[in-house]
Design a protein that fits this description.
The complex is a heterotrimer of chains A (364), B (284) and C (436).
Chain A lengths: L29 E5 L1 E2 L2 E2 L1 H17 L3 E7 L2 H13 L4 E6 L8 H15 L3 E5 L2 H14 L3 E5 L1 E4 L5 E6 L6 E6 L5 E5 L16 E4 L12 E7 L13 E5 L9 H10 L3 E4 L1 H5 L20 E5 L5 H7 L4 E6 L12 E4 L2 H22 L1
Parallel strand pairs in A: 1-4, 1-6, 4-5, 5-12, 6-11, 7-11, 14-15, 14-16, 16-17, 17-18
Antiparallel strand pairs in A: 2-3, 8-9, 9-10
Helix pairs in contact in A: 3-4, 5-8
Chain B lengths: L1 E5 L2 E3 L5 E2 L6 E2 L5 E3 L1 H17 L2 E7 L5 H10 L3 E5 L9 H19 L4 E5 L10 H9 L2 E13 L4 E7 L3 E8 L2 E5 L11 H9 L3 E3 L1 H4 L14 E7 L9 E2 L7 H15 L1 H13 L1
Parallel strand pairs in B: 1-6, 1-8, 6-7, 7-13, 8-12, 9-12
Antiparallel strand pairs in B: 2-5, 3-4, 9-10, 10-11
Helix pairs in contact in B: 2-5, 3-4, 7-8
Chain C lengths: L4 E7 L3 H12 L4 E4 L13 E4 H5 L11 E13 L4 E7 L10 E4 L1 H14 L3 E3 L4 E6 L5 E6 L6 E8 L6 H5 L11 E10 L2 H8 L5 E9 L7 E7 L3 E9 H7 L4 H10 L1 H7 L3 E11 L10 E2 L2 E3 L15 H20 L6 H13 L1 H8 L3 H28 L6 H16 L1 H15 L1
Parallel strand pairs in C: 1-2, 1-10, 2-7, 4-12, 10-17
Antiparallel strand pairs in C: 3-6, 4-5, 4-6, 8-9, 9-10, 11-14, 11-15, 12-13, 13-14, 16-17
Helix pairs in contact in C: 1-3, 1-9, 9-10, 12-13, 12-14, 13-14
The chains are: A alpha/beta (364), B alpha/beta (284), C alpha/beta (436).
The structure holds flavin-adenine dinucleotide (2 copies) and adenosine monophosphate.
């Protein structure tokens, strides 16, 4: 979509009638690529199974998990997990060459698998791995790929309607892949809700073998240096998140956000401009190009609520906005708002919360 | 060594406005910049050239005014700039863009020597898809090295390259074989300030301008709107939530009073959260 | 390595530098222009009035391509008190002519376009490059410039200083003295975006018609300064400017505070309602007038535009003087180099003589006493008179059973009370003299 945003909506091909070429008519079913690395399933893959399930039900087709890696037992166990998260079947591709993720063998496998089993929709996480793979596979298949979707739906013509923020202003766009299959989309972690696992749910396993030899693969993995437990990585999973924006005015005031988060035992972050100004580290950015969060309570102080920020926080159970401007767009999607100066209100909130919580400790 | 760097001219995101009535993006007068992610690739390219010799060619597909970005890249020290501009490319999505760019790279390769490395940005700040780099790699059969945080070593005789690549859970150390397509991580370096000689050379340089015909695009139907599988069906403003935010207002405008009212509201809405917080606090 | 040599180096790519560079290149000189901003106009305050005449003399058919916003068909001059304004509106359909005389423009776009013309005519332009000093030979003749990029100096037969109001290069090289606070105004400006139809409706405009409001009065807190509002196609430029010395005297007034007051004034607020603010910018305006004009030429150097203090504060003209001085300087330099002479101080004096003969110096001289007068009597003009005027207007227009004669004497009495008869007469006299 790099240049596409310059197209006026509703003009030209947007109104084009869908005419799926004959050879694509046999493409059926919804696939989710399962990221399985270093013995772990990436949570985004399970979130996508939840979403894929809905699409498959709507289309009345099957939902398949695609699992690639090395070591049959481990892959079967992953398949079991995907069944409990909604998959009807799992394609397993087991090959020592697939032990560590590398673009080349994975692209080959995925291309071959799609050509053989012909899904109509394929979803991947918008992670480093997912983006690396999706871009390559979409090119080998010469099909459309919509990145970083925030909403997926099936329209009246059985076509995938993939919605994502569009560049610049506070706008969203819905993108379709009309005449090509599969319709591919990536979704960022935490954008979709984690489905509830149904223990004991089962499915079919389909083994897929490809002719892959290590000698044919140009890129070699020499080493892997795992990240040490990164506390910022917890931000995406925190129950309570407090974040600040440009309304904080100075880098010093970021401390006010941290204080409140501490008092609540939560985590903290900020809007993108704060990262650009160097007030907070990049891992603490919340939004489309930062972390997506789904806390029980999100407090946004001095954040206007641009679409790129909004899509990163909309999954929160309760959004509380503090802004001096009663017209700020954040009040359009916050649940609770207050027109106030964050710089004076934040410390007062911290104090008040502390008091209420400590009173209880005495009582208890 | 031949290094190609794909750059894109993008509107400066901070200055974009949306027409409040028509909801279209108002581009008029919005300054353009080189996609910031592309500069990490450009700087890495310049460093490799400084160390191993050779040439850095910057290239873009875009409207005629993209010449400004190319000239700026020359100011940083690139040796040559090429613009691919043609009506047939208008409305390209990432698949069509990578088709045009890979043909541009082929033509540039024939003209100045095939590239050993093609650099792309990790992603653009307008499209934000991170798809064009992989697309180019696949079309040209280059080894694809995305999210590279450092190039540790390179050997031009046995054509090997050693890189560190940022994965989701750690850093991969990879060895690959030239030619490669690399996208650099942000923060991996900082774009240099070109010298006065660079600036003068850039100001006077002729930017090479090619169109679909000069590049010899094999199949024009794969370009632009026609060649794009994805279609933007609608652009719309996000809807406000059904019920607007409940605004907490107090007669006493002191922070203390406001904080109190706000907390009451939060706990009314989320009694379970209150219980959990209290339990947590008591547990300490 | 041989040194880079040009016929002329122009420092700055504002209207004056662009005019000078264009004129010289058009006459066949090898010209280098150096601009510290990312592009021409990037450092310039947005939204302004363009006077066609000065540009027409350089690029006759500029209207075909230049990014113009609206042509001005209505001028409002307001005296404001806290609650309202009294003023004059002048509007005429005559301004809907083929070649309108005044346009609103957005400087960032306009300067960029003008500079593109400059590059297309063959000038080499360096951006993001700051001239740090002038290189002189043993006779103190300027022979080139040093920039902040790594590398040797760049040399030229003449350096055109089009660096704008601060004139730091000239100052550092001892060609001029430091700016005095009473000679410069600090202006702040904002762009307020609104849909074209809304602007048309609010200001009673159609097509490309535009309105200019200039205002003074109590909003500046008694400081010498003015406020303005221009309609662009899809935005409104609003700003205020006050002398730097006045801010210093006041101690607490801030430019931003005054702009806020202006924007929230009942007469203005409704005009901006619902707009989206972008781009806040502050810039100096040289308002010292004729007496503040520095030395304009020397051996190997020549000064144009704001750097030469060419601004007519009373009529709010600047860019036209900048372009005219730039063009004249360019012509003079081209003539000198074209006839194989050198750009000595004496030869460059032709430029000064031509300025004297043009409207530039004539206007500068006409208003030469205005700055001093404002410095002395400013408070009354900026505060007292607007109040008086508005109070008088109210007395005059209210129908309240009082006879007209008493109303007239009320008005006179309150004026006399406020300033005293001699004071009033004195102000009138001074104003008249300053304008003469
Ligand atoms: C491709 C792309 C990706 C992006 N990705 C992200 C992303 O991931 N995350 C993100 O956050 N942004 C992202 N952005 C940027 C986004 O568009 C906005 O520019 C950004 O979110 C605005 O940040 P802000 O709300 O802090 O600042 P502003 O928009 O400047 O808002 C500041 C707010 O603070 C209020 N305020 C001022 N003073 C006070 C005070 N004393 N007390 C309380 N309130 C006050 C103001 O009324 C205003 O509403 C992206 C943009 C693009 C183009
Ligand atoms: C708020 C405001 C409103 C105005 N409104 C109007 C109006 O409506 N109509 C009007 O006619 N005039 C107006 N003016 C005045 C007008 O803007 C100036 O008179 C005009 O811009 C002067 O042009 P210039 O080329 O001399 O200087 P500038 O436009 O200031 O250009 C100087 C250039 O030199 C560059 N530069 C400076 N130092 C260096 C260096 N060392 N090395 C390299 N580059 C350097 C700067 O970056 C700048 O681009 C206004 C001014 C202000 C501040
Ligand atoms: N039109 C273009 N011209 C040159 N390079 C491009 C173009 N579009 C994208 N790229 C390159 O591809 C990268 C990723 O772009 P995107 O897929 O749009 O996020 C960019 O950082 C550029 O290096």
């Amino acid at each position: 979509m790099s240049n596409q945003t310059s197209r006026p909506a509703g003009s030209g091909r947007a109104n084009m009638k869908r005419e799926l070429p004959e050879h694509f008519r046999s493409y059926k079913h919804v696939w989710v690529f399962i990221e399985f690395e270093h013995g772990r399933i990436h949570p985004v893959s399970l979130e996508l199974l939840g979403e894929g399930r809905k699409l498959a039900d709507k289309l009345e087709v099957e939902l398949a998990a695609v699992i690639a890696g090395s070591g049959h037992d481990a892959l079967e166990e992953v398949a079991g997990t995907t069944f409990s998260y909604g998959a009807d079947l799992a394609y397993i591709i087991d090959n020592p060459v697939l032990a560590d993720y590398r673009n080349e063998p994975y692209t080959r496998v995925m291309t071959a698998l799609v050509e053989k089993y012909q899904p109509e929709i394929m979803l991947l996480g918008a992670t480093v791995l997912g983006r690396d793979l999706a871009g390559a596979v979409a090119t080998t298949l010469k099909t459309g790929l919509t990145a970083d979707c925030t909403e997926l739906a099936i329209d009246g013509e059985r076509s995938l309607a993939a919605t994502r923020p569009t560049f610049g202003g506070s706008l969203l766009c819905t993108i379709h892949t009309l005449n090509y299959r599969p319709q591919m989309a990536t979704v960022r972690p935490r954008v979709m809700a984690m489905p509830v696992a149904q223990e004991g749910r089962s499915g079919r396993i389909v083994e897929f073998t490809v002719d892959l030899k290590e000698e044919d693969i140009i890129t070699k993995v020499l080493d892997f240096l795992p990240d040490t437990a990164n506390e910022a990585a917890q931000l995406a999973f925190a129950d309570i998140v407090v974040a600040g924006g440009i309304g904080l005015r100075t880098s010093e005031n970021v401390q006010l956000v941290r204080d409140l988060a501490n008092a609540l035992g939560g985590d903290w972050g900020g809007s993108r401009p704060l990262v650009q100004k160097g007030w907070i580290p990049a891992e603490r950015q919340i939004g489309q190009t930062g972390k997506t969060i789904r806390p029980r309570l999100y407090i946004a102080a001095g954040i206007s609520g641009a679409i790129q920020h909004r899509v990163g926080v909309e999954g929160a159970d309760l959004i509380v906005a503090i802004n001096t401007d009663p017209q700020a767009p954040i009040f359009d999607f916050a649940h609770v708002g207050i027109t106030a100066d964050a710089i004076t209100l934040l410390p007062a909130l911290t104090n008040a919360f502390r008091q209420r919580l400590s009173v209880n400790r005495l009582a208890g | 060594m031949q290094i190609f760097v794909c750059i894109k001219q993008v509107p400066d995101s901070g200055q974009i406005r949306v027409h409040p009535v028509t909801n279209t993006i108002m581009r008029q007068g919005v300054p353009t910049i080189i996609n910031p992610y592309d500069l990490f690739g450009l700087e890495q390219a310049l460093r490799l050239r400084d160390r191993f010799g050779g040439e850095v060619t910057v290239m873009t597909m875009g409207p005629p005014m993209a010449v400004d970005s190319l000239r700026k890249a020359l100011t940083y020290g690139a040796d040559r700039a090429v613009l691919l501009t043609d009506r047939v490319f208008a409305g390209s999505d990432t698949l069509a863009t990578s088709y045009a760019l890979s043909n541009l790279i082929l033509k540039a390769g024939e003209t100045w020597g095939a590239p050993d490395i093609v650099f792309c940005g990790k992603q653009t700040i307008d499209g934000d898809t991170a798809q064009v780099g992989p697309g180019i790699a696949r079309r040209l059969g280059l080894s694809q090295l995305t999210y590279v945080s450092g190039i540790d070593d390179m050997d031009l005789t046995d054509r090997q390259i050693l890189v560190r690549r940022r994965g989701d859970h750690g850093v991969q150390v990879l060895r690959s074989q030239l030619p490669v397509m690399v996208t650099m991580m942000e923060g991996s370096n900082e774009i240099r300030r070109g010298t006065q000689a660079d600036a003068l050379r850039a100001a006077r340089a002729e930017v090479v301008k090619w169109n679909a015909a000069t590049v010899g695009i094999p199949d024009v139907s794969l370009c632009g709107l026609r060649g794009s599988p994805t279609v933007v069906k609608k652009v719309f403003a996000p809807t406000a939530r059904e019920e607007k935010a409940e605004m907490v207002a107090t007669t006493d405008q002191s922070p203390v009073a406001m904080a109190d009212a706000l907390i009451n509201q939060i706990f009314t809405r989320q009694p379970a959260l209150q219980d959990d917080l209290l339990r947590q606090a008591a547990g300490h | 390595m041989t040194h880079e040599h040009f016929d002329a180096i122009v420092v700055g790519a504002g209207p004056s530098g662009n005019a000078a560079a264009y004129t010289m290149a058009q006459r066949g000189l090898k010209v280098l222009q150096i601009e510290r901003g990312e592009y021409a106009g990037s450092k310039n305050v947005q939204g302004a009035i363009l006077y066609s005449d000065a540009l027409e003399k350089i690029i006759p058919d500029f209207r075909d391509e230049a990014p113009l916003e609206r042509h001005v068909i209505e001028q409002r001059i307001w005296m404001m008190d806290d609650a309202g304004h009294t003023g004059m509106h002048h509007r005429s359909d005559d301004y809907n002519e083929d070649r309108p005389n005044r346009y609103t423009i957005i400087r960032a776009q306009f300067d960029k376009w003008f500079n593109r013309c400059v590059r297309e005519i063959g000038v080499t332009v360096l951006f993001e490059t700051t001239v740090t000093s002038l290189i002189t030979d043993e006779n103190k003749r300027v022979i080139g410039v040093q920039t902040d990029r790594d590398g040797n100096g760049i040399f030229a037969d003449v350096v055109v200083l089009a660096e704008g109001v601060n004139g730091l290069v000239g100052q550092r090289s001892g060609l001029r003295r430091e700016l005095r606070p009473e000679d410069v105004a600090l202006a702040v400006k904002e762009m307020h975006f609104l849909p074209q139809e809304v602007i048309d409706a609010r200001f009673n405009l159609k097509g490309e018609e535009g309105v200019v409001i200039e205002a003074m009065g109590t909003i500046t807190d008694g400081m010498v300064g003015t406020a303005f509002l221009y309609t662009n196609r899809e935005s409104i430029s609003v700003g205020v400017g006050c002398l730097v010395s006045e801010f210093a005297k006041s101690g607490e007034a801030t430019p931003h505070g005054i702009l806020d007051r202006f924007k929230n004034h009942p007469s203005i607020k409704a005009l901006l309602e619902g707009s989206e603010i972008k781009e806040y910018a502050a810039h100096l305006i040289p308002e010292g007038g004729f007496r503040a004009v520095p030395e304009l030429v020397g051996d190997g150097w020549i000064v144009v535009g704001d750097a030469g203090h060419f601004v007519n504060a009373v009529h709010r003209e600047g860019s036209n003087l900048a372009m005219t001085t730039g063009r004249l300087a360019g012509e003079v330099v081209a003539n000198i180099l074209g006839s194989c002479m050198t750009c000595t101080r004496d030869n460059l004096q032709t430029y000064v003589r031509q300025l004297e003969d043009s409207f530039v110096m004539k206007d500068m001289k006409k208003y030469k006493n205005v700055p001093r007068m404002l410095e002395q009597g400013g408070r009354h003009i900026m505060d007292l008179y607007p109040r008086l005027l508005n109070r008088s207007a109210q007395t005059w227009f209210r129908v309240d059973g009082k006879d007209k004669k008493s109303k007239e004497s009320d008005i006179l009495r309150s004026a006399r009370q406020a300033r005293g008869l001699t004071g009033l007469l004195g102000d009138a006299f001074k104003l008249a003299r300053a304008w003469r």
